[in-house]
Amino acid sequence: MANNGSRKQITFDLCTDALKRYYPHQEPPLNPQYYNQAYYDIRRFMKEHGFEHRQSSAYVSAGRLTTLDIVILMERMAAELPWLGRCVNEIDVADIGAQHSLKKLLETASRPLEVELGELSMEAAAARPVRQKARSARRCTYARER
């Protein structure tokens, strides 16, 4: 049976100290955060090679890839971004099976909470002046007792 591959997720963990040292920049750097450009370089590379940026340093392939495809991708990445090999704490690849967004489910489940929080905010606002008066009265009583 032939291996047709699967969709892949690739995640990166970069070392900031290594980026500061090895990411290409002029001396002195015009922008002290110059090394953050590395994340945009990776994003551009991944998009050019059929990956979607999902979150933080996680990318998901648009189509199916084999292990050989990933090896070739890493070789191309090393050639195009030669500093990356020295700056990676870890880079992982995972096969993706069926993927389902849970966003709508979470939003729907959160709606009653929004209503409750809204009601609590209104109740708290209505009760706030009474509480402040009560505190002021206590302070006055305390001051008179001393």
TrEMBL record:
This protein's superkingdom? Bacteria
Its name, as the record gives it, is Virulence-associated protein D (VapD) conserved region
Organism name: Pseudoflavonifractor capillosus ATCC 29799
